[in-house]
Give the backbone structure.
Amino acid sequence: MYWLQLMIEMCVFGIKGLQHDGVFELIHAHNLFTSIQDKLVLLMNFNSTEASKMLIDNIDKVPVHVVVEQLQQKRDLLHSYLHNLFLRDLRAGQDFHELQVELYAEFDQEILLPFLRQSNSYPLQKAMIICEARGLIQEQVFLLGRMGNHKEALSLIISKLKDVNMAIDFAKEQNDEDLWEDLIKYSVDKPAFITGLLRNIGTHMDPILVIKRIPRGLQIPELRDSLVKIMHDFNLQISLREGCDKILVKDCVSLLDRLSRLQRRGISVSEAQRCQICNARVIGADGRSSGNLCVFYCHHVYHQECLQAFSSGRDETFFCQCCTARNSRSRDRHAILH
């Protein structure tokens, strides 16, 4: 009786019925999703969190584009719905990610940069225009980096944010020598930037490049500590390289020993095997070998006399005729294809 009364209230009182505490349970229980598609604004106004959850759980019954069309004039509610949809499923609303860039820039700028990092479904140039209009520098830096305009991105960091650590991190991410060169050129007359470079550039660029360009007489804060750190980083690199060299030598010796043991192992020869040149059995019916044999690691077997006769007038070193011929044909085919 309670639910019947509530349904009557929805039909008769409209807005009041939609603002009843049990409206979402009623819609689920009686599958009224078709009936509410023109009342989404009222539901979102009543409880945007519950309404968004219900709509996202039932995308197959209330498609995303229907919700977006209904909420076009209520941008704050549209932002709430699309944000919750993005958190639930990155791809479900990817057709509206361009719109979401505008909504994040308008209602929730702190989340805009993480959104830009995670999504690939928005036009970069349009997003750049939106961020420029609202003066969102970090977002512009990211977009310029994604578009491949690294120098302009670094210029923004230096000129607008004046953040040496962010500039250094950006140069490290891009791993571009030209960016480091631009950063050094900008920093030579700025003591704070020089200090930051000296403390962080050691493992990525030669610190001498910075030190040589410091104007004579320029006061650099914490210069002594920075130089000590450079020397410490240098010694650490030397120590790491020496450790790597020792490990490499040890591995080489171990592998060489393994190869030597493998090459000293015998290779079995059965009665069924034949000489690859004369096609005669290499072991006779009585179990005796018919002369000296040459067995290669590819397991091809030859009579020594056959190999000597085949190789007469050539290099005295024996090699497997089958494998050599096969490799030669393969190289010829490769050359023809190219």
About this structure: The chain has 19 helices and two strands. The first helix runs from residue 2 to 13. Confidence is low (pLDDT under 50) at residues 11-17, 332-338.
